[in-house]
Amino acid sequence: MTGKPPARGLSRKQRRLSVIVAAGCVLAAALGLVLYAMNDTILFFNAPTDVQTKNVRPGTRFRLGGLVKEGSVVRSDGQQVAFEVTDTKSVIRVQYRGLLPDLFREGQGIVAEGALDPSGVFRADSVLAKHDETYMPREVADALRRQGHWQGEGKASQQAEQ
Amino acid sequence: MLVEAGHFALALALGLSLIQVVVPLWGARANDPVLMAVAPTTALAVFACIGFAFFALTMAYVTSDFSVLNVVENSHSTKPLIYKIAGVWGNHEGSMLLWVLILSLFGGIVALSRDSIPARLQANTLAVQAAITLAFLAFILTTSNPFDRVIPAPADGQDLNPLLQDLGLAIHPPLLYVGYVGFSIAFAFACAALIDGRIDAVWARIVRPWTLIAWAFLTLGIAMGSYWAYYELGWGGWWFWDPVENASLMPWLAGTALVHSTVVMEKRDSLKIWTILLAILTFSLSLLGTFLVRSGVLTSVHSFAVDPERGSFILGILVVFIGGSLALFAWRAPMLQQGGVFAPISREGALVLNNLFLATGCATVFIGTLYPLALEVMTGEKISVGEPFFNLTFVPLIIPLLLLLPLGQTLAWKRGNLLGAAQRLYAAFGLSLLVMIVIFAFTHQGPVAAPLGIGLGVFLILGSLNDIVTRSWVKGGDWSLIRRKAFGLPRSSWGAAIAHAGVGLTVIGIAATAWDVESLGTMRPGDRLAVGPYEARLETIVPRRSANYREDVATLTILSGGRELGSVETMKRLYITRGMPTTEAGILTRGLSQVYVSLGEIQPNGALGMRLYYKPLVLLIWLGAVVMAAGGGLSLTDRRLRVGAAAKARRLPVSPLPAE
Hints:
The complex is a heterodimer of chains A (162) and B (660). By secondary structure, chain A is α+β, with helices and mostly antiparallel strands. Chain A is 34% helix and 27% strand. Chain A has a 5-stranded mixed beta barrel with strand order 2-4-5-7-6. The longest helix of chain A has 30 residues. In chain B, the strands form 2 sheets. A 5-stranded antiparallel β-sheet of chain B has the order 3-4-5-6-7, with no helix packed on it. In chain B, strands 2-10-9-8 form a 4-stranded antiparallel β-sheet, with no helix packed on it.
């Protein structure tokens, strides 16, 4: 029924070709979009030490992760918060306006998203802590391990495991 | 005792599934009806065993049996009963047990529908299904045994993660799993067809209801998860393009394509090989999702414990089933009888386009989800792919699909008339354009995305209605005749129209998020803060105690032009056992819009950090999903799907069971 060429219109070969052409167009468009988006929208994760060694330029958006330095949290009016993020080797100051997550505490691992301003302060537009007190954000744990100061992940997973 | 019996039942189920794999496959090969008949019997027995194991674990939770490690880690004697029950699957071991329970439930239903499925197909299908059950039972018994004892038993448990102590936990995982795991049946049917080397429209008719059930449940599960995240996480966001969410979106996209391609296969005996591939890919994506969520590759509220051994085991399962089924496909698919090729301008042509867009959209989500993982493994560089990436890739692929949807629905089967179809849509298109212009005129300072998106949503709804109206219209406008004709349309046509209208509702809800208003402020009792057209006044902040947490409750009155609309409560809770703080958002619903209030830090001077949102039409996002699922459910009741394939069973050489 469908195999017979119709009285009018395209032959079997042409029909098949039209499907292939349509598929090719959509796939090419998708590929183009993905490649374009890959260049533009991807955020790198940096620990404070990475920020210095890679010499990240002001205005480049990235994700900053580390521990909130003890005693560094300063709150001011209008929900402004300033704190320092550390990987125990380097420190970066962070400015943020908004509500902090429930699990934001001094000494706790966090990941902030934003960019450095010309004075080297990280302007965050979001701050994330993890959903559960036993988890250290994985990127943060890895960054700390690189500094040789963190053996906690094994412990944390054991805790979760027991 | 019950706990050991549950453990034993799981082991028994493992043995029975092994039988269910080997014997029916052999029987189908040797054409032996007796051996094939082993499949349904063992499938039911496996379901009974796993069901009993699940019951045993549930009882351990309900009675707070703290000699069971799993209960100790995830429960507490003061936890409310509903969370004791839901807490059974609020942890790694229990959720895997729920996974296999649903897997075996589907196997059991296939076993019971012996009248509508040819025996040979049923035997092969159940054997493949049992292979999946076998793998996951082995996984549970070796790496994630929920029945492990702890001696001596502690006095009390460690409580459940407070974020999970919510009604959402009782609903979201079972819905999602029925969807996820439901696609295993389509997968098993596809593999069975490949093993048998036979596939036809009857196969599509048998598989279609299973796909529809799984799809409808997955739709509800994702929507429920999204709403839960929206009210629980306190950011007012409903979709974060988080890898865990993407893990459920990918099978949904592939499943949506599958639901549509089975229609083509059933009606036109075409697109066969693609449909088989799609069935395999859909469940493969479900398995991938399980791997991503359960292996600890991603850290999130869903990944309960990080254990490399479990990760490698699930990865092994993934490789065996995806690799195995694709190898089977590569080997057998060329032997299957090819379907016909059809005219590009036709309903089936439009459905191919639908599949093309959905599959490509799914591929972009796949890349966005897995590329960071792959890059980290290869270079150690950590990147995050978030909303901007998906807005640039997934969204531009889905918008043309939605624009073309009403047109495709209007095209006739076999050979459609593009101009004719477009003409029938003039009214719907004109009306939605009008809606768009009116909204734009009233909100011309606002974002352009909102009126454009709402126009698209209205077009989808009107286009779906249009389909029903034009198909039941009679010249002269005799209402009783029109009504009779409309109700005489197949249920599947109504189902499709309703599901597509649901898509329109969700699109409107999403578009309206462009109008969201967020206000941040520091408030003391008596202070007011404006949010969109409303105002919130902080009344009181008082401490309160419950069995397993204590909280500070802020009560706010929402006002509109000085008139009180109602009050909402938002809380900062501290769960005592885990010492974990959470925020509970307060929500006031006005029609389809919501005012969302979230309590921030309580400052030493007594002032409260407060975050307010005005979210116009936000409920449509989830309501649309419910309507989509309802459309799928209505399609299921179509007579065509209920009758089954009994009459066509004669095509198969051996049909030992009475086919009628």
